[in-house]
Structure formats: C-alpha cells, structure tokens
Design brief:
The chain is mainly α. It has six helices and no strands. The protein has one domain: Ankyrin repeat-containing domain (Serine Threonine Protein Phosphatase 5, Tetratricopeptide repeat, Alpha Horseshoe), CATH 1.25.40.20.
C-alpha cells in the first residue's frame, strides 16, 4: 500500500516478546539467504517505502530496539536517508525529542 514490505511492518510493531521473535526469525532467514545471495538481502532489508524509509528507519523511530539490533545484524544500511534527509539514527533522535516534549508539556 505505501510501498512497504512485511519487514517494514513487523519492525515497528514489536510490542511484545513474540513479535520481536518474528522479526528475529525473518532476519535470521535473511542472513541465511544473504550467504547465498548478498544482493537479495540488500534489496529486502534496505528496501525503501514511498517516503524512502527503510525497516530500520521505522524500527528506530518507534523505539524497537530488538528489531533495530536484528536489522543491524542483517547488515541494514545505516546511511540510507529518507525523503526528509534523515537516517535511522536521526529518526530515533527525532522520536525521542517528540516523546520528551510530550512528557514535559
């Protein structure tokens, strides 16, 4: 719908241990696939949606540490920028700033 893959969705909706395990299992399968075809993992893990965000952007923005760790283990590219020019690290910082502002206001 928005150009997102299943990995985009599960990466930012890890609300519990079971969902985190799903991300980890997808990533483990990707690692296995990557050993056979590195181009496949790059195309899937670093796929950008219509806003040019990767699964790593989404997981970082939503504070999904386990998903972020799994994606990094799978060689997610940390230098990819979205349409606004943000990397996943900037997305995480932006989310923290928004959360912090809402707590103190």
């Amino acid at each position: 719908m928005y150009g997102r893959t299943a990995l985009h969705y599960v990466s930012y909706k890890c609300n519990d241990e079971n969902e985190a395990k799903i991300v980890e299992s997808i990533v483990k399968e990707l690692i296995t696939t990557a050993k056979r075809s590195p181009d496949t993992i790059n195309a899937f893990v670093n796929k950008q949606d219509k806003k040019e965000k990767t699964a790593l952007h989404r997981a970082a923005y939503h504070g999904q540490l386990r998903a972020v760790q799994a994606l990094l283990n799978c060689k997610a590219n940390v230098t990819v920028r979205d349409k606004q020019g943000c990397t996943a690290l900037l997305a995480a910082a932006s989310a923290l700033k928004t959360w912090t502002r809402s707590v103190f206001v």
